[in-house]
Automatic annotation (TrEMBL):
It comes from Chryseobacterium pennipullorum. Residues 13-83 form the MIP18 family-like domain. Transmembrane segments: none annotated. InterPro entries: Fe-S_Maturation_MIP18, FSCA_dom_sf, MIP18-like, SUF_FeS_clus_asmbl-assoc. This is SUF system Fe-S cluster assembly protein. The lineage of its organism: Bacteria, Pseudomonadati, Bacteroidota, Flavobacteriia, Flavobacteriales. NCBIfam families: SUF_assoc. SUPFAM superfamilies: Fe-S cluster assembly (FSCA) domain-like.
Length: 108
């Protein structure tokens, strides 16, 4: 089934809402506001590709966090499949955080 651009946009919004429910266990801010999600691509078949990173390559949740993201996004209505790519290029740094995240962490 092919989705319209508007439907794809709605699916994208749902995915972002779901991503905002996933937290880095060491920082009380969700992974979306932290800037750990580099890209969310949605095909017109609703195949989703997420490119994300972790705060450090040795992050204690390196195995569980990407799986949690994949599982939660897969539950979004109409999502057909989820491909998750973990990257460390470019390396995450605190400049990637949203203003909201910086405020939450007392950095503003």
């Amino acid at each position: 089934m092919k989705f319209t651009d508007d439907q794809i946009a709605d699916i994208g919004e749902e995915i972002i809402m779901v991503l905002k429910t996933v937290y880095d266990p060491e920082i009380p801010v969700d992974i979306y506001e932290l800037g750990l999600i580099y890209d969310v691509q949605i095909s017109d078949d609703a195949d989703v590709k997420i490119i994300m990173t972790l705060t450090t390559p040795n992050c204690p949740v390196a195995e569980t966090l990407p799986q949690e993201v994949k599982d939660k996004v897969a539950e979004v209505e109409h999502v057909n499949s989820v491909d998750l790519e973990l990257t460390f290029e470019p390396s995450w740094n605190k400049d990637m955080m949203s203003e909201e995240a910086k405020f939450e962490l007392g950095m503003l």
